[in-house]
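Worked problem 6 (solution included).
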Amino acid sequence: MTPPRLLTDWRAVPPACRGATLALGNMDGVHLGHRAVLDTARAARPGAPLGVVTFEPHPREHFRPEDPPFRLTPLAEKCRTLGEAGVDFVLALPFDAALAAMPAEGFFGEVLRDGLAASHLACGQDFAFGHRRGGDTGLLAQLAAAAGIGLITVPAVADAGGPISSTRIRRALQDGYPERAATMLGRPFELRGEVVHGDKLGRVLGWPTANIWIGRRLEPARGVYAVTVALPDGGEAKGVANIGRRPTLGGDPETRLETYIFDWSGDLYGQEIGVRLVRFLRPDAKFDGLETLKLAIAQDAAAARAVLGLPPGPAGA
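Solution. The predicted structure is:
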């Protein structure tokens, strides 16, 4: 899979990216509803490049910087997932005060018509653009028609719980239901990051873990999960992971993800892995000592192996 080309300036769009069919929106998570918009854009002009126009940072981060992190997919992960969906380029417009103040008509004319020379547009029914979200799909249709640019507004994809949305996926993860999130995403929810050195306590306990920081992104429910792990060599392994701040050990200032990988050995420090949440097993807990913690980890590992269809492993594995 070739990653999409990442652009940040609508005033300097390469010739190969002009005349594209464009999918519009933040696309946080790149869920099934977003995939429908991408598929519609591609089908409208199969011979044209497929681009995505989004914003970085997310406008909510610009207007409400004090909010807790909420993003499902930081930009690098969003681009990777969009590339897997066949997107050729992503225009991540820097969302600052100047862009926030741009009128809807100016955004259409300067960015979509002149900057990108769009041949076709696709968006969800709730897409809004321009100063104070002053432009809706009705205005977009008028502007596109006047410019001779095609537009398709794509109905929301829904399931038994209603329209699939990034908000519903966030809630499912925060409530401890990664399998519900996976159904709406069309893939397991993945936390990706570089493996960092910890205090090596896992080795002492017999459960060496690969540690990554959660960082500025949505924090799923704290606790223990059965997981699969995307390894740097492209392989996949299975394991048990904990999201939390290690209350038994005095607490951490930041949330970390600690993953014990079953039936695997090797050095992952400094390399990037992806940890895919399969099933929430139990909430984070504080234990009265290391021996109690060690016993709990063994029980968690046994539960994770059962969920993942693995045979029981020896103690400390």
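Discussion: The mean pLDDT is 92.
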